[in-house]
Structure formats: C-alpha cells, structure tokens
Design brief:
Layout lengths: L7 H15 L22 E7 L2 H10 L1 H10 L3 H4 L6 E8 L5 H8 L7 E12 L8 E7 L4 H17 L12 H6 L2 H10 L6 E3 L2 E3 L5 E7 L5 H17 L4 E5 L1 E7 L5 E9 L5 E3 L5
Antiparallel strand pairs: 1-2, 1-9, 3-4, 3-8, 4-7, 5-6, 9-10, 10-11
Keywords: Signal
Length: 285
C-alpha cells in the first residue's frame, strides 16, 4: 500500500466528523442487528460512487462482458445475469430507512476531489467474508498507485467520516453470517461506521482499509465448490485477456440508491469533479 499523506486541514475536518459519530445516540444508530445470526432486513441503502465513463464501459462491454455472461449462463446464474447495475466505483454505502437521507448526504458531502486519473486492472472474486457463503462479487480492481488512487483514498476517509453518521445501523449485507465470519478489524469497522472496507481515523492516524474497484457480478447465490471453480477459471481468463489495464478519468461522483448486494439501481444527485456543479436526477429516471 502506498504511503498516503493527508493535508492537515483535511485530517482536522475528518477528526471532527469522526467525533460527531460518537456523539450520536443509540436511538439514532442501532447496532443490535449484529447480535443476530440472520441478515438484517433491508429497507434502503444509499451510497456515494464514481460512475464509470462511457469509454471505460465500452471497453468492458466489448472485451469483458460477453465472456462474463457466457460463464454465468454455464453456471446457471440467471439472477446474476438479470441484475440491474449502473457501473461504478464505490466511495461508501450507508443503510437508512429515512427517505430524506440522500438530501442529508448532499448537505454533509465533503468537497470532492478534482477529476481522478486511474487504471482499472486485475479481476478477482470477492467474498463479503471468507467462508460466509454469500454475498460474493466479481470485481475489477483499481491500480494502487498514482495521484488519482491517493486522492480516492483520502476522499474515502473524509466521505466516510461525514456520511456514516447518517446511517440507522449497519449495512444488512455485513450482518448475520457475514459479520460472524469477519476478522476483528472488520467487525470493529462495522460497529464504528456500519460497513467494512472503508478508511477511518483512529488515534489521529488514518486506517486504510478501502479497496476501490468496479463490480461486474453481484450474487446472493451460495458459493459452492462448483461455482468457485468456474469463477476462478473465469478470473484467470479475464486477467490473461486484459493484462495492461484500462486507463480512465472519473469526472463526477454521485449519490445513489442501491439494492442489498450493492448494485446501483438509481442515480439521485451527480456532482461534477470539474466545476462542482450538482445535478438533481431524482425525477429524471
């Protein structure tokens, strides 16, 4: 992992946001679902994400999607084939039954970074927690070096601190059987900010757990040995076919609505990384 240095002003604002998390009452953020063996019921998940540009989507559609869809058909994963998703790279997700949460997210949003130059490379199969069985995903990673990646990591820290206080509890997909299989570090993040895989401040220092990526397949189908083998073969073929990566520039960040597994079904607000302009898309879809 690169050595990331955060500006003092940004670090100070993140510390203030982190302190505000602990000031919220238990009635506002309820972690009691972490005691259950079952997934927490899903009401509504909202998130902050970078949309993939059209050129990157075109490359994936031409070189990657046909092979992925063929494998899904061979493995009889029809639900995964039909899953709706707006291609994106996640910043952070929160669960809240409050329908005004997107507006509150927009009001609390830290200033976004300038356009991000990144490279998409290396396909992988990812489990929510090892041996939990589900959910699982097929992901395309972001190369972990360069100014664009470092800015993504810094913004994840700031956005997590600012938006996590708006949750009503943990994301349902990290509760129940997933939470039971998580590492202690993952469980600590879920308790603190409602989700794992994000950056937080602890004792004045950033803890960098964020792994930015684009997800190609979302699944709640139990991960059997047969599925594992088929997906591992697919991952190997995809990495062989796309060895140099896909260079792209992210020009906006969006507040979105998601389903249980994390697929984006609706874009609500779009914020330009070029000029900061906010587009309200709630009534345009």
């Amino acid at each position: 992992m690169p050595n990331l240095t955060l500006p003092r002003t940004l670090l100070a604002s993140m510390l203030l946001s982190a302190l505000s998390i602990s000031s919220l009452s238990a009635a506002e953020i309820d972690n009691s679902s972490l005691e259950s063996a079952d997934f927490r019921p899903h009401v509504a998940t909202y998130g902050l994400v970078y949309r993939l540009p059209e050129a990157a989507n075109a490359t994936l559609s031409n070189k990657v999607t046909p092979r992925v869809e063929q494998t899904l058909r061979e493995l009889k994963l029809s639900r995964e084939l039909d899953t709706i998703n707006i291609p994106h790279i996640t910043v952070v997700h929160i669960h809240s039954a409050d329908p005004t949460t997107p507006e509150k997210m927009l009001a609390a949003l830290p200033k976004p970074p300038a356009p991000l130059m990144i490279t998409l490379k290396t396909f992988s199969k990812t489990e929510a927690a090892k041996d939990a069985g589900r959910p699982w995903w097929l992901d395309l990673g972001v190369v972990k070096q360069g100014q664009g990646f470092e800015q993504m990591m810094s913004y994840n820290t700031a956005a997590t601190a600012a938006l996590a206080p708006l949750r009503d509890g943990p994301l349902p997909r990290v509760t129940g059987p997933v939470y039971a299989k998580m590492s202690d570090a993952g469980k600590a993040l879920v308790k603190q900010v409602g989700v794992s895989g994000v950056n937080v401040i602890k004792d004045g220092q950033p803890l960098l757990a964020h792994n930015p990526h684009n997800t190609l397949v979302y699944s709640m189908t139990p991960l059997t040995a047969e599925l594992n083998a088929g997906l591992d073969t697919l991952v190997a073929k995809l990495n062989q076919a796309q060895p140099v990566g896909i260079e792209t520039t992210l020009n906006d960040v969006s507040i979105v609505q998601l389903e249980f597994a994390g697929n984006v079904i609706r874009e609500l607000y779009r914020i330009s990384l070029i000029d900061g302009k906010v587009s309200d898309l709630r009534n345009k879809q």
